[in-house]
Amino acid sequence: MSSSHSKVRIVENPNELYEYSKNVRLPHKPVPVTSHAAKLYEEANLIIEIPFDLSSSLGLDYPASCPNLLSGYMHISPNDLFKQDGVVSYTSLCLYVIRGHSTTNIFDEGQVNWLKSDLLVIPYQTQPLEHFAHDDTALYYVHDGPLLKYLQVKPDSEHANRLGTLIGNSKTHEK
């Protein structure tokens, strides 16, 4: 088999191949109904990331709001810079602006200015994001970091699988 990738893994064990749509649901305990109070970001007076981490209720050993996503709040004080490093953590990030006016430096794309009620969807980046708050800023974020932790993969495009097939690891074998 020839390939442009230097480290192609040929899967010979059919127990390691899974059709995506039939196997995308991760095993987990039931997701509890709970809330993440707004006062967590309203009362913050510094730069802070406040993950909505339910990992202990879900029986996971990594931060997660549900088995395949992590959400939370970010608070950035006026004239402060917050570096958000997702280089090896997630494949995309969704940010909703609860309040504030800020600029995000996206190294692969340039700068994005945003205001209250804006929604940003940022694909995988090779450098940390830099959020600069022009005034008091609160954001809600969601990313797929827990799914990557479960699959034991890193979000780089060099060995990306776009065929809709999941290749298993030791955690995915059926019992």
Core attributes:
mainly beta; four-stranded antiparallel beta sheet; 175 residues; Jelly Rolls; single chain; 33% strand; 11% helix; five-stranded antiparallel beta sheet; disordered N terminus
What do you see in this structure?
With 175 residues, the protein is mostly beta strands. The protein has a domain of 122 residues: Jelly Rolls (Sandwich), CATH 2.60.120.10. The chain has four helices and eleven strands; from the N terminus they run βααβαββββββββαβ. A five-stranded antiparallel sheet has the order 2-3-10-5-8. A hairpin with a 3-residue loop joins strand 6 and strand 7. The longest helix is centred in the C-terminal third of the chain and has 7 residues. The protein is globular and about 55 Å long. The chain starts with 16 loop residues before the first strand and ends in an 8-residue tail after the last strand. The N terminus is likely disordered.
Q: How is the secondary structure organized here?
A:
Layout: E1 17-19, H1 20-23, H2 39-42, E2 48-51, H3 55-58, E3 70-76, E4 81-84, E5 92-99, E6 101-106, E7 110-115, E8 119-123, E9 129-133, E10 137-143, H4 145-151, E11 165-167
